[in-house]
């Protein structure tokens, strides 16, 4: 079952930052990796991805640099900044807390007992 864009919208930045923690990448490669890691359950639109990396760059969470592909084609590579690493950790903790709260509703339980 495919994941809707609405369900994942607030966590696109986390996906991108997560991938950039290991090494710099360019937008097309990021899109391919997101699809592959999701097991083909989520395919990010190029416009969504470009908006995300531009937003992350404007916020100082990623840097961009000009590069060249092995075939000689110019590419823009993105890398995570120290601020991006800190932001990633904060957003991961936020996700864990959010998931915990939603899970309580899905499972029909509340902290300390049942509803």
From TrEMBL:
Residues of the Transcription regulator PadR N-terminal domain: 16-84
InterPro entries with a match to the protein in the record: ArsR-like_HTH (IPR011991), Metal_resp_DNA-bind_regulator (IPR052509), Tscrpt_reg_PadR_N (IPR005149), WH-like_DNA-bd_sf (IPR036388), WH_DNA-bd_sf (IPR036390)
Gene3D superfamilies assigned: Winged helix-like DNA-binding domain superfamily/Winged helix DNA-binding domain (1.10.10.10)
Domain of life of the source: Bacteria
CDD domains named among the record's database cross-references: HTH_ARSR
PANTHER family assigned to the protein according to its UniProt record, in alphabetical order: PADR-FAMILY TRANSCRIPTIONAL REGULATOR (PTHR33169), TRANSCRIPTIONAL REGULATOR RV3488 (PTHR33169:SF14)
Identification of the protein by name: PadR family transcriptional regulator PadR
Organism: Microbacterium halimionae
